Amino acid sequence: xxxxxxxxxxxxxxxxxxxxxxxxxxxxxxxxxxxxxxxxxxxxxxxxxxxxxxxxxxxxxxxxxxxxxxxxxxxxxxxxxxxxxxxxxxxxxxxxxxxxxxxxxxxxxxxxxxxxxxxxxxxxxxxxxxxxxxxxxxxxxxxxxxxxx
Length: 149
Fold this sequence. Notes:
The protein is mainly α and about 150 residues long. It has helices at about 5-25, 30-35, 35-65, 75-80, 90-105, 115-120, 125-140.
């Protein structure tokens, strides 16, 4: 595994850990989820971490592969799908999650528990699909087993 793959794989491991926590929170019924405000806060935290991992991986790949300058998180995602590292449909959904992440971080007081719950129900698959597509991309980039030495 080359250093780029090792770094991305490490970030994917942290992302998977957050997604595991998010899936457990998503599995709670509404009564359980809303019974404690800590559930929405914990979900918000792990959503931020998972989305930030997407952006960090994307930034790393755009820089290392010289995919063009970016001045926003959305542009990072655009570069990934313009250069076929991820599918355009997924890219558009991830741009939306990047905007959502900005709300979670910069105007957190406006984000309701209901909005966090909706993201848990509707958007975790986008993050899982990002992992699958990046792993597929990395696997294509890896040298064949006999060339690895």
